[in-house]
Every structure is written in C-alpha cells, then in structure tokens.
Write a structure and sequence with these properties.
By secondary structure, the chain is α+β, with helices and mostly antiparallel strands. The chain has 7 helices and 6 strands. A 4-stranded antiparallel beta sheet has the order 2-3-1-6, sandwiched between helices. It has a two-stranded antiparallel ribbon with strand order 4-5.
Amino acid sequence: MRDGWAQFQSMKKRKYKTVKHYHELGDLHELTFSCYRRITLLTNTVICEKLARTIDAAGEDYRMPLVGFVFMPEHVHLLVRPLDDKPAISDYLRDVKQPVSVLQKKLLIEHKSRLLQRLTVPTGADKGTFRFWQEGPGYDRNLQTCPAVRSSLNYLHENPCRRKLVQAITDWRWSSARFYVSDGKNIDLLLPMITPLPAEFWNSEGF
C-alpha cells in the first residue's frame, strides 16, 4: 500500500513539475508563485529589492516587459507581456527566482539564522536542499482581452487591501498601484520597472 501511494505521489510530483506554458501571439500572462510552504519571506527590503532587480534583468533578457505586479509577504503576482512568439516563460521564472534564493541563503548563513534550517529540505544528501520558493511552476494564466487585463491589474493592486495589510492600494509599496494611480509619474527606483501597454493594445479589435 505504501509503495502504491509513494508511486502515486511521485507521478503527481513529476506531472506538477512539467506543467507547460501555453502562449498565443498577443497574450499577456499573469504569473503567480509562492515562497516555500507560504512562509512570509518577502518582508525584507533587501530581498524584495533583489527580486525587483531580477525581474528587470529577466524581462530584458527574455523580452518579457512587466505590466503590473504585487509582492505579497508569501507570494508574488507578475503580469508580463511576452514580445516573442514562443516566450521562454520557464526560463524567465527561473532567472527571476534563483538569484533571490541564493541571496537569502547567503544572508541566513551570515547571520546564523534558525530560519536556514527551516528552509532546508532533507534530500538524502548531508546538507539537504535549500528552498526559498515553493517547488513547482506556480500558476500561469493567459489574458487575451482588455477587460481581463484590467481585472488582473485590479486584482493585483487590491490584494494587500483584501488581506487587510493596508487601507488603500497606494499604501502598499511593493506593487504597481502607485505607478498606475499617478499615470506613471510615481516611479520608485526600488521597484521593478513597469512598461505600460501601448495605446493600440487597448484600442485593437476584440479588446
């Protein structure tokens, strides 16, 4: 019985790891990924700034500009607009997440934090595997219409209010809300760079 359950879990795990990202020209993607076991790891300014910079770098490398975002204490939402016909979304996410994990581990070791042990998963190796992010690809939702994009942006920006972390969407620093509310005039250099959608996107047929 145990062998059967172990095999089922293994198959389920393999399937989860190999989720494919689907794309059609013009699609935007709302990407969601979480910290390991949804631990509130995104409360450190240094880590959040590192995440912002990796998003900037990966967006440039993979031609995937950021349209909107929110960093919650234990998960992240990114709204991206791939410019290539076959965007490398898995590689983009890897390059966004991996440097953050490396930095966090380095800081925990330097400060001899007990959190290091909590984030180290036994793997049979002597030292185990450090995990900042929850294993798996997270969620990828394709958006093809203006109402869907507007709804996604509203959802992202309202997330901290729904959680009662702040009263107004502009009170939460780690999102693109202030950028949009100010019509792009409020630019916080600590945050990832936002690339607004072009006017033709909103005016195109079918949107």
